[in-house]
């Protein structure tokens, strides 16, 4: 087997590398170049330096979208992970019908974001119309609606990861802590959570990056209304690129800034949480 792999490695590696280059590396490099150009298509790009970045950072709506997205990400990360962890704890305590509950909680994750957005828009508007309001009349209605929608969608997925982490904790460690006199809260804070840090690292990374990259649900639930005030970063970039004639370069510059922000936040979060992981 090893000799065959050494002999035919190119057959398996080259198509994969080619696909990766065509689908990611080349478009990424072109995106960096186009962010420094004024263009309408990739064939008529004119180099303008950092002019697009200056325009991007001068755009008040881009600044508002950043802080709106940051606030949403903080709230949604806390809500999603706290509730998902609590459900995972409950479902690993030998309750009846745990498999049914796991399936029920996970199912919303299988529904597309666009569909979920329209469904929850009908639900929220049905509630708010009693007070002659709709979810698009106030950006904070949209904020709360997005938090509820995304939490409902992602809690089940994070719960599965937490369940796997809880089941991997050696039972003898918990039994030893109980014998030493630690109560349930003490075992949770001093034993369970430290040994769950690999799962917590994964869930925090996914929820932080998903929060910043949110697009479908934002588009279908509020579409940035009223007056772009509930617009998050991804939707703001989309509207800049496709909604403003001559702003394609600025939209591309915003996309590069967006990529840098998400990358930095993800690396910082991974660095912080990995330091708190313990060996089992």
Automatic annotation (TrEMBL):
Q: Where in the cell is it found?
A: Cell membrane
Name of the featured protein? ABC transporter, permease protein
Q: Where is the ABC transmembrane type-1 domain?
A: 66-269
Record keywords, A-Z: Cell membrane, Membrane, Transmembrane, Transmembrane helix, Transport
What is the predominant subcellular site recorded for this chain? membrane
From which lineage does this chain's organism come?
Bacteria, Bacillati, Actinomycetota, Coriobacteriia, Coriobacteriales
Describe its membrane topology: Multi-pass membrane protein
Tree of life domain: Bacteria
Task: Output the PROSITE patterns linked to this UniProt entry.
Answer: ABC_TM1
| Annotated TM spans | 12-34, 65-91, 103-120, 140-166, 187-208, 255-272
Family annotation (InterPro entries): MetI-like, MetI-like_sf, UgpAE/MalFG_permease
Q: Which family does it belong to?
A: Belongs to the binding-protein-dependent transport system permease family.
